[in-house]
What does this fold into?
Amino acid sequence: MRQFVSAASPNSKGLLEISGKDFHYLRNVLRLSVGDMVTLSLPGGVSRESTLCKVDDGAKKMTLQVCGTAFAGENPSQGKDCAGQDCPQGLEAAPRTRLALLQFIPKPQKMELIVRQAAECGVAAIVPVIGEYTQGGSEKALQKSDRFEKIIREARQQSGSQVETKIFQPQKLGAALDLIGENEPSALKLFLYERTDGTVSFKDALLAQEQNRSQAQEAAAASLVPAKSRAPISCVYAVGSEGGISPGECGLLLSRGFKAVHFNTNILRCETAALYAAAAIQSALDN
It folds into this structure.
């Protein structure tokens, strides 16, 4: 899927003018020509089909026309593109489990890789955690928010992810848990642990969540309240840095409703573990 992530919305006529580096991306990377279509990912999580209507290579500007007559932020419907052809106005993705990652901060290069891969996988929220084993100065690199926003944007355009991945400012673990608690109050909560003592398998963690969900559905049915979806509304998973997660931090996570999960696999680097966990969670819950 060819996708362009736009920070701006089309004007009242459904036109979006592109210049600068974005022009280079669409013209030289995606190699778009007049009449070609590209998916627009607009602010607010709206995805729309658009057609390239005009190109000025000298001025390095181009104009995209959003399909149909309703523009950014409105409900998708069937419409016409600027060439008069029928095209779907919006793209409605299949419902997926919302993922949030609590990532104990590793070295800067590893953190950039984790953010890129998380955005490609459709992780909605990334909270960098300043842990006991975080190397001094690593969190300072995260103050350059523009850098990570660029990484996320490039990853979404490359992967076609329609999820607006957001990265937060670095937080101590307690503050990160408070932040996640406000945004993901009913989430399935897991943290990856390299040791086996005191942990549960991923399967057992999911079974426990399903039992809780079933009990909630039974209670809802008894009170004539519509039952919720079988899948969790969201899943929050925490991954340690190079040194892992300290015993004290494990205790805090457990006290806040997290389950310690041990994947029966090889020893994984932190950047591999974050990707591995996202894939496992999505595979289990989305299917």
About this structure: Residues 69-94, 227-232 have pLDDT under 50 and may be disordered. The first helix runs from residue 20 to 29. The helical segments are 20-29, 108-121, 145-159, 173-183, 202-222, 247-255, 270-286. DSSP finds seven helices and 14 strands in the chain.
